[in-house]
Specification:
Elements: H1 2-19, H2 33-66, E1 111-113, E2 117-120, E3 128-133, E4 140-146, E5 150-155, E6 162-165, E7 171-182, E8 185-196, H3 219-227, H4 234-248, E9 250-251, H5 253-261, H6 271-277, E10 279-280, H7 282-294, E11 300-307, E12 310-319, E13 323-331, E14 336-338, H8 341-346, H9 349-356, E15 362-367
Helix pairs in contact: 3-7, 4-7, 6-7
Length: about 375
């Protein structure tokens, strides 16, 4: 018992010395035996609690790692629907400027004639006949008389077939071939009467023919397609062709004087020749424009007659939703004029007639 008390006393003395550096040793109270037991007991409980706390914390961490974290409750934002990439707009031409060049044919399925001339009527429904002459007369005329006192006369001096339009529409036509006897006297070589029923009334004004001779190989056809590539309508096409011609073709006064004097009695327009030379008379202008517009599938009439007292040629065209615009391109003997396409599209027939002139100013004698 005495030994135990001495050990405790020594133990307390050592603790007192150790704590002297941390504070006033005199302020420390020495616990009693009961207090020491309670302190030890409390420390043991604390250690046990700490051990349990560490164990529980470790368990929670393990459980936390094992269990997935619940996503927070939140209304998701709607996902924007992506706009589809627009398809590229294909290029669409304003109007179809593909050249249109039907070829007149002497098919031989319906023919009339004799040993020196042949009239091929295989394509009356398309508004034309083909004819040739293989005789010996140096001057031969072909005359076509149709409905409503229609009459046109052509020179027929070749063994090759040539196309002649039936521009008076449906009805009866008398075709006469005449050979020259002397001076201005002619005798009938052959004559036939034909009844025509034309499927498309515009056909005579869309085909090449005697005074408007061209083919797919004609340069003017390609030029028309090039000029009309940017045209938005047929009226635009007429304007583009007209402007090109008046800017690039000058009037040939020498040729005009030869025709007026009679030294050049027979004249047929050379369409590509006019473009090449850059010169022409009214018939050259009219034939060139007619060729170019017909090849753009615009029905066009080459008209020959009188402007006041002068003998001239001009053109009329058919414009969809408007009708025939008569005298859309005119020549007064010194100047060419084009009716304003806007005016043509918005004017009444009476206003158009006032622009063109009455019968005493512009009188049509032939339509080709």
């Amino acid at each position: 018992m005495k030994k135990k008390f001495i050990k405790k006393l020594i133990s307390y003395s050592i603790c007192s010395l150790l704590l002297t550096g941390c504070g006033d040793a005199t302020s420390l109270s020495v616990p009693s035996a009961d207090q020491t037991s309670r302190s030890e007991s409390n420390m043991t409980e604390a250690l046990q609690a700490g051990s349990e706390s560490d164990s529980q914390s470790s368990s929670r961490e393990t459980a936390s790692q094992a269990a997935p974290t619940a996503a927070p409750t939140q209304t998701p934002k709607p996902t924007a629907t992506p706009k589809p990439t627009p398809e590229p707009t294909p290029f669409v031409p304003l109007r179809d400027n593909t050249p249109y060049c039907p070829v007149p044919e002497a098919s031989g399925t319906v023919t009339y004639g004799n040993d020196v001339t042949t009239i091929d009527a295989s394509h009356l429904d398309q508004g034309y006949i083909m004819a040739n002459y293989t005789g010996t007369s140096p001057k031969v005329k072909l005359q076509i008389v149709g409905p409503s006192s229609y009459k046109c006369t052509y020179d027929l001096n070749t063994a090759e077939f040539q196309a002649f339009p039936l521009t008076a529409g449906d009805g009866s036509y008398t075709i006469t071939v005449c050979e020259n006897i002397q001076n201005n006297e002619y005798s009938i070589c052959y004559e036939v009467e034909l009844d025509a029923s034309i499927a498309d009334p515009f056909s005579p004004y869309l085909y090449p023919s005697y005074y408007v001779s061209y083919s797919a190989d004609t340069y003017a056809v390609d030029l028309a397609a090039e000029l009309c590539e940017t045209a938005a309508s047929d009226l635009d096409c007429v304007s583009l062709v007209y402007n090109y011609i008046i800017e690039n073709i000058s009037y040939d006064y020498d040729k005009a004087s030869q025709i007026t004097s009679g030294s050049l009695s027979v004249y047929i327009a050379d369409i590509d020749g006019t473009l090449s030379s850059g010169k022409g008379i009214c018939l050259d202008y009219a034939a060139l424009m007619t060729c170019m517009l017909r090849s753009q599938k615009i029905p066009t009439r080459l008209e020959v007659g009188y402007a006041s007292t002068a003998y001239h040629a001009w053109i009329s065209t058919y414009i969809e939703d408007i009708g025939w615009v008569n005298g859309i391109v005119q020549f007064d003997g010194a100047h060419w004029s084009l009716m304003d396409p806007t005016f043509a599209a918005s004017s009444s027939e009476e206003e158009l007639k006032e622009f063109i002139g009455d019968g005493s100013n512009y009188s049509v004698k032939y339509i080709y």
